Amino acid sequence: MFYAGWDLLDARELKPERRIDSKTLFDLVKLAFGVVAGAGALVALVVAYRRQRVDEDGALRDATRLHTERFTTAVSQLGDESAAVRLGGVHALAGLADDAPTRELRQTCIDVLCAYLRLPYIAGTDLPADDAAALHTYLALREVRHTVIRLLRDRLRLPLHHHHSWQVHDFDFTGVTFDGGDLSGAQFSGGTVSFAGAQFSGGTVSFAGAQFSGGTVSFHEAVFSGGTVYFGGAVFSGGTVNFQSAEFSGGTVSFAGARFSGGLVGFSHARFSDGTVDFSHARFSDGTVDFSHVTFSDGTVDFGGAQFCGSTVNFRSAVFCGSTVKFTGVTFSDGGTVTFDQAAFSGGTVTFDQAAFSGGTVTFTSAVFSGGTVTFDRAVFARGTVQFSWAVFAGGSTVTFDRSAFSGGTIHFSHARFSDGTVRFCAIFSGGTVNFDRAEFSGGTVTFDEPVFYGGTVNFSSAGFSGGTVTFDRPGFSGGTVTFSGASGAAPPGLPTVDAPCPHGLILAAAWQPTDP
């Protein structure tokens, strides 16, 4: 500070003197006063800062003390027998959370509101018949609970930086019974939200237009047994949303028009045993959606019109044993992977009718078709890769490709085993590659019903025709290549015999070769 004052006073220009004259003495006095004034200002600044901190701490203590007093009053209102008083307590707690002086105090208010919802509750569907008093009590309690849900929703709709926004906080709805409630437009952008073990048993619970963009939201082991739960138009763009081991046993759950564009949405080990689950026109464009080990045993699951254009969607080891699962009109386009590897199709109906395979990869590797019906009728295979390699077609299943068009891309049935059931191709092969190389036809019925081959390559190289019935009913060979090179067993009926000319582009196994025309 001495040297700084020296510079400010231009004291460095002073010349050394053997005797101090009046001018030099005056400069030294100015320097001394400057140093003292600077030190005084610094001390004043430190004192003011400390006083401000003390005042702020005091204000925070006063605000916390007032908050605690109001909090105690509001919580006591929640325990009142009167529904009107409880409603007042709910609004008081919400207002306290809005004005809480710290994040921790706001979280405490939120925790109490969530705990109120977790209290034992009997839904209207479980009330005794003709019990007017029980119905009156239920309606009053339901009004209070639905008000809590509405107030939570209102705060979660506010932008993140709004001073009343409750985003990035934690919400614990574990085991809560929902018989209605509106969370539409809520933004779950951080924190942890748990609906684990929640019961959705009646009424309508709406997540319409909700945004899941961060944090963790869990519906683990939640039970959807009645009413309607609506996620229509919801956006899953980040974080983790977990429906693992959830049970869909009644009512309607709708993800119609939802967008899955990031993060992880998990349904692994979920059970679809009744009711309707609707993913129609949903868009899967990024992130991962996991249906691995899911069981579809009854009810209807509809993916009609959905778009798979960039994400990873996993149905690995899923079991289709009784439900109706619709992929009608879905689009599999550029990028992304949809896998049904090792899935078991043993009952019910699964439809891919009018699906468009125009990019990306769809795999049924090692899937087992042992019952029920799987249809790809009027599907279009134009680009990308579709894998049925090592798949097993057995039991009483029916798999159809009626009026399907194979015009591009690559479809693999390599090493597939056709040992029972019925597989029918009433299709047009105009481009791309369809591989049946090393497939084994040992039982059941495989029919190529009026197929048209006029482009691309259909490859039966080294396939084995050892049993069952494989027929080519009135095939048309006008272009492309169809090869049975290296195939073993008897030639399927419908192919040219040794006494008939071989159409251009058809290559038969050596033992099946007809005479030249």
What is the strand and helix layout of this fold?
Elements: H1 2-8, H2 22-78, H3 83-99, H4 103-118, H5 132-157, E1 171-172, E2 177-178, E3 181-182, E4 187-188, E5 192-194, E6 199-200, E7 204-206, E8 211-218, E9 223-224, E10 228-230, E11 235-242, E12 247-254, E13 259-266, E14 271-278, E15 283-290, E16 295-296, E17 300-302, E18 307-308, E19 312-314, E20 319-326, E21 331-332, E22 337-339, E23 344-351, E24 356-363, E25 368-375, E26 380-387, E27 392-393, E28 398-400, E29 405-412, E30 417-418, E31 422-425, E32 428-435, E33 440-449, E34 452-459, E35 464-473, E36 476-483, E37 488-489, E38 506-507
Helix pairs in contact: 2-3, 2-4, 3-4, 3-5
Short description:
The chain has 517 residues and is an alpha/beta fold. 24% of the residues lie in helices and 37% in strands. Helix 2 runs antiparallel to helix 3, helix 3 runs antiparallel to helix 4 and helix 3 packs parallel to helix 5.
Describe this protein's structure:
The protein folds into two domains: 1-172, no CATH class; 185-512. The chain is built from five helices and 38 strands. The strands form two sheets. The protein has a 20-stranded parallel sheet that branches. Strands 15-18-21-24-22-19 form a six-stranded parallel barrel. Helix 2 runs antiparallel to helix 3 (83-99). The termini are far apart.
Keywords:
517 residues, alpha/beta, 20-stranded parallel beta sheet, six-stranded parallel beta barrel, 5 helices, 37% strand
